[in-house]
Each structure stands twice: as structure tokens, then as C-alpha cells.
Amino acid sequence: LQSPKFISYVNVLTGGMFIAMGLFHILPESIEHQPCSLATLFTSEESAMGVVFFVFVGFMMVLFFERVLFDVHDHSKSCDNTANPGTEGAEGEEDHLHVETQGWGAAVLLISLGVHSVFEGIIVGTAESVGTVFLLAGIVVAHKWAAAFAMAD
Known about the structure:
Elements: H1 4-32, H2 36-39, H3 49-69, E1 71-74, E2 97-100, H4 105-125, H5 130-142, H6 144-152
Antiparallel strand pairs: 1-2
Helix pairs in contact: 4-5
């Protein structure tokens, strides 16, 4: 479980699952159930431009946080390098991943997890039946390990 290759495979799998869920399930459903004010946000006729615009803005926010605000770069030479810890790179430094957060990355993570928890509470609180409340509460509890892992990392 500590293998970098295994973790990269898991990252690829989960990334593919999120992309597939977003493109093939959530996006079409959002376009189908969009309110009239959003459907006519950019055009006089009903279109999907409002939903697509907000999807684009959300994607750009994630890109900004990952690639601009938190500069993540790898000092290994190539993809086929097995990244053995302790091996020397071309410039005389070890091959490893650098994440530069200027010291406030933990605060951003704490705020984002707090906002995430507020939305989880709203979703559970707006459930209309007791069975749905228990289902949603179970889902929330089932993925709390990821937040704990993010905070511990």
C-alpha cells in the first residue's frame, strides 16, 4: 500500500471515476433540471450555456488552487523513473515531489473542509424522509476518512 506506483494507479482510477460521474451523470442532469433563469442567462432562448459556464468556472477554480496557489512540481527525471527514495537526481538532489504552500495550505484545507461539512449538513437537513436522512448520514460518515486522511497528510 505504500508503493508510489500503486498510489498513482488509485489516483488515476478515482480521477477517471470523478470525470465520468461528472460528465455522464451530473452534467446532463444539471442541464435537464436547470431553472429558467439559468437557461436564459446568456441567451434569449433556453440553452445549456449557464450550466456549462458554471462548470467551467468551477474547473478553473480547482485548476487555480492546484496549479497556481499551491505550486506542485516533481523533481524526478522521467515517468519511467521508479522514484526510489534516496536516489540522487540530475542536480544532486533527491527525486521527490515538492508542494509549496507558503505556510497557509493547512488553513485553506481547514476552511474548505468546513465549507464542505456545511453543505453536507444542509443536504442531510433538507431530507424529506427518515430513511433518506439515515442514508445521507451514512454516506457522509462513510467518506469522512478522506477528510481525516487529508488533514493527517
